[in-house]
Structures are given as structure tokens and as C-alpha cells.
Amino acid sequence: MAITPVKELVMRAKEEIETLSRDEVWRLAEAGEALVVDIRDPRELEREGRFPGAMHAPRGMLEFWFDPASPYHKEAFATDKKIILFCAGAWRSALAAKALKDMGGENIAEMDGGFGAWKKDGRPVE
Predict the structure, then answer these.
(1) Cβ atoms within 10 A of the Cβ of 126, count?
(2) Do 99 and 60 meet the contact criterion of CB atoms below 8 Å apart?
(3) Is 34 left (phi over 0), alpha (psi -120 to 50) or beta?
(4) Which residues lie in coiled coils (predicted)?
(5) Domain spans, the chain
(6) d(Cα 67, Cα 45) in Å, to the nearest integer?
(7) Closest Cα to residue 118, out of 51, 69, 58?
(8) 82: three-class secondary structure by DSSP
(9) Model pTM greater than 0.70?
(10) What is the pLDDT of residues 62-79, one digit of tens each?
């Protein structure tokens, strides 16, 4: 039985979701118009640093935290702001953004290049 490679799943997801430039993500975050959500593993945050002001939502809990009917729901996700997800390299965030969109989420996007590209650009890191 052949499986669909993850790279293909990511490419398909990227065709269905909105990807924002790092400049646009920063502009929206600074203007208070976005909830920026870091879905990386906690060990990655400790090792690499954090996007200033981003909410951390572990990838394994994202859908549960997003769903208002879930006992794990986080109020931060009950927002009219654009929800912008990122991971290290914009693969997990693409799949996650598609999952939230498939759940009926609106105004969902991912950050181009992920935190790796953010850091490589020399942008602010906490």
C-alpha cells in the first residue's frame, strides 16, 4: 500500500490556504489585527526562541483548542482577528491551517518560511 508523501500533502494544503509574507505577519501583529500562533514543539521554542507576543499552541492540541465545543477550547481562538499559524519551516503550519479551514475556520493563514526564515532574516526573537 502506497501512502501519500507528506511533501505532497503540504503542497496540496498550500494550494487551499492563505500564506502571508513575514512583513505582512509583523505588520498585522504590530497593529493588533492578528493572533499569531506558534505550533512548534516546546523544545523548539526553548532552543530557537519565540516570535514576540505569539501564542503557543502545540500542534497536537490545535484543533481541540480551536473548537468551541471542545472541553479543551481556548478563548484566545474565539476572535475576529486573523489567525496566523507558523512552525519551523512552514510545513506543519500549512497542514494545520488547512485543518482549521476544514473545521470551518475563517480568516486563517500561515507565515511564509516559518520561524526558521523569520530568524534567518534577523527579525525580533524573544
Answers:
(1) 9
(2) no
(3) beta
(4) none
(5) 6-120
(6) 24
(7) 51
(8) strand
(9) yes
(10) 999 999 999 999 999 999
Tens-place pLDDT, residues 8-60: 999 999 999 999 999 999 999 999 999 999 999 999 999 999 999 999 999 99
Residue type, 82: K
User: For residue 119, which amino acid is it?
Assistant: K
Exposure on the CB side of residue 107, measured as CA atoms within 13 A:
13
Amino acid (1-letter code) at residue 45: L
80-98 pLDDT, tens digit per residue, is 999 999 999 999 999 999 9
| 35 Cβ contact list (under 8 Å, min separation 6) | 55, 76, 77, 79, 81, 82, 83, 84
Grade residue 100 by pLDDT with cuts at 50, 70 and 90: very high
Q: Which CATH architecture group holds 6-120?
A: 3-Layer(aba) Sandwich (3.40)
Count of CB atoms within 10 A of residue 90's CB? 21
